[in-house]
Amino acid sequence: MALIVQKYGGTSVGSVERIQAVAEKVARFQAEGNQVVVVVSAMSGETNRLIALAKEIADEPSPREMDVLLSTGEQCTIALLCMALENMGVPARSYTGGQVRILTDHSHMKARIEAIDDARVRADLDAGRIVVVAGFQGVDHDGSITTLGRGGSDTTAVALAAALKADECQIYTDVDGVYTTDPRVVPRAQRLEKVTFEEMLELASLGSKVLQIRAVEFAGKYSVPLRVLHSFKDGPGTLITVDDEVDMEQPVISGIAFSRDEAKIIVRGAPDTPGIAYKILGPVGAANIEVDMIVQNVGKDGAADFTFTVNRNDVKRARQALEAESANLGNPELIADDKIAKISLVGVGMRSHAGVASKMFGALAEEGINIEMISTSEIKISVVIAEKYLELAVRALHSAFGLDAPAED
Amino acid sequence: MALIVQKYGGTSVGSVERIQAVAEKVARFQAEGNQVVVVVSAMSGETNRLIALAKEIADEPSPREMDVLLSTGEQCTIALLCMALENMGVPARSYTGGQVRILTDHSHMKARIEAIDDARVRADLDAGRIVVVAGFQGVDHDGSITTLGRGGSDTTAVALAAALKADECQIYTDVDGVYTTDPRVVPRAQRLEKVTFEEMLELASLGSKVLQIRAVEFAGKYSVPLRVLHSFKDGPGTLITVDDEVDMEQPVISGIAFSRDEAKIIVRGAPDTPGIAYKILGPVGAANIEVDMIVQNVGKDGAADFTFTVNRNDVKRARQALEAESANLGNPELIADDKIAKISLVGVGMRSHAGVASKMFGALAEEGINIEMISTSEIKISVVIAEKYLELAVRALHSAFGLDAPAED
């Protein structure tokens, strides 16, 4: 008998009909001999409705009370799902985060889970019940309701799976798995059978919105096998698992991620003295702007050419922060460019395979695409190119690294 | 410094604007030097919305899960009210029933309060905070959410006031107090300054919907001074208090209640043998129909004439129950009449004043109104009359017992 934790997001429980469909699916899993814990989000639209109510009352609502308000969204869903199950004759019991109890720190609206008491859940499972838990929420040491921030339901599911030592944590979404790249850009993108936690983390941080980064981190830390599946289509989905379970014969590259959310700022002609990087990035950080890629070269006449990327929404503020410090930096030339895109190859196979970078650069050169910035890590190579080449570049790389699905006859 | 518990119902918190108006009112009370605990209901319409959702899922939703669902209504209100208070710079803290903790029995959807832990509320009050508590809900010994049934927020307020030994429990409603009778029928009806718990119980059970009977019972049991006030109009309202605090010089009659909700059934010609009342009312009770007034007379030829009243909605079922037992009852004649009304005079003054009944019957006779049934208790006299005379009778009695407000010039 396997113990499975399943998580259904807001869209999957977005209407009475969908809640009933989820109930049937869950009941089927139990009938097949599994113990099932279900974690649900608020019905789609509900959280936004509640936030709008709060904003009518106060521009900056009290975070403690915001959590009291928002947590009602998931509380409604757990009750409705249990009603649907019990109406089908399947014993079920709902728990809010506080009832489980999912103990968190005091950080309202972005709380972190500290401990989970699994006694009540386990007793219900042993009594043959399906346990339905409100995602996204917990309770702090004072008994105040906390929430984990957007996407927190994934984290609840993984944390519960870890606490219960579940055999698998299944995240049901509106996609049928993790793909080698975005199928809207590359029609021949393929669903991955397996991917490692590290790869998934890189893919997630690079814009693949299938899973929340925190949940993947958590699953990796506690080695909880995680599976991404489609809520309403059958299929094996994608298993996210630890490194050593991955087939050694797997391709070097698992996936290609890309993002249009970035912009770069070039600082040209700052003096190439020790500490210049700190002088440039200090004011940017002080303005609470996150910096992604950083490249520094010595230019002509001993001046530094310094380039970094930020989120496209932050580029104006980053430039202003630098202009305010211009004298300190030797009045360098500032060039901002938001017509860029970032493409990243991700794969644990890179560790044992040389030549991935040169193969990547070669494939891009063949299409006449200029690389503006390069950044590498152990399992990732990222390049910045002009935005207009994005689709062309992704397709060329997808093909060059053998990721294309076989052509259909 | 007084400790006041205030309760605002669903209409009083039915919109963001009204919640803000309540926040201002509550803050004013605190600024005047009071410690304030506020009990709120769900925003008007919210409970019905949630019930409709549940009914879409299941015809008979699990009571435990119904409570999980319904309790979110008040939880939203406490959060929004606290946000409004904090936005005005007034420290406030919200509590669900479970957080307080309001301990109840296990009877979902109609739980009874067993104990209240006042430690957290008291600590907050002492720290200068306004405490906002979700009405209508509690938590049982297993930590499951329970609700107290419709109108349960009044009970929550009274129970909290009793636990905290509050100086007063104020129930804010859409009327400015308890009246001598319904002002829509008698324009010269007057607001009562004071009324006793016993009188209020009689008035409430007779159709005066100002307060829930359970809350009045609770307040009487624990001698919690209860005051009914209008949510958005200033005024002293009506104080409901224990007998010995009532002015001995007060009028004999406090109020006149009436109801159109009843129907009578006459059982004519059943044998007048011991046990005939039980034989008649047994089948009615077995059909789960509540009987109100009962009158029995010996008719001609030693047969019993037996009359009783039931809720108008139950009259058909009551008649069917009797017809099924007709042979047992000696095949009596059954006459149902739903064109009746009940009028009750209520007043603790009756105890020490003779002649109330005869004065009542005289006033009705003077208007040519026939009395069909009579029933008396220590502080109440009820009569059944033809429905068409209802308004006439109430006005005549209101005037005869000196309840009319002085005529305006």
TrEMBL record, chains A, B:
Coiled coil: none annotated. Its EC number is 2.7.2.4. Pathway: Amino-acid biosynthesis; L-methionine biosynthesis via de novo pathway; L-homoserine from L-aspartate: step 1/3; Amino-acid biosynthesis; L-lysine biosynthesis via DAP pathway; (S)-tetrahydrodipicolinate from L-aspartate: step 1/4; Amino-acid biosynthesis; L-threonine biosynthesis; L-threonine from L-aspartate: step 1/5. Keywords: Amino-acid biosynthesis, ATP-binding, Kinase, Lysine biosynthesis, Nucleotide-binding, Transferase. InterPro entries: AceGlu_kinase-like_sf, ACT-like_dom_sf, ACT_Aspartokinase, ACT_dom, AKii-LysC-BS, Asp/Glu/Uridylate_kinase, Asp_kin_monofn, Asp_kinase. Belongs to the aspartokinase family. This is Aspartokinase. It comes from Isoalcanivorax beigongshangi.
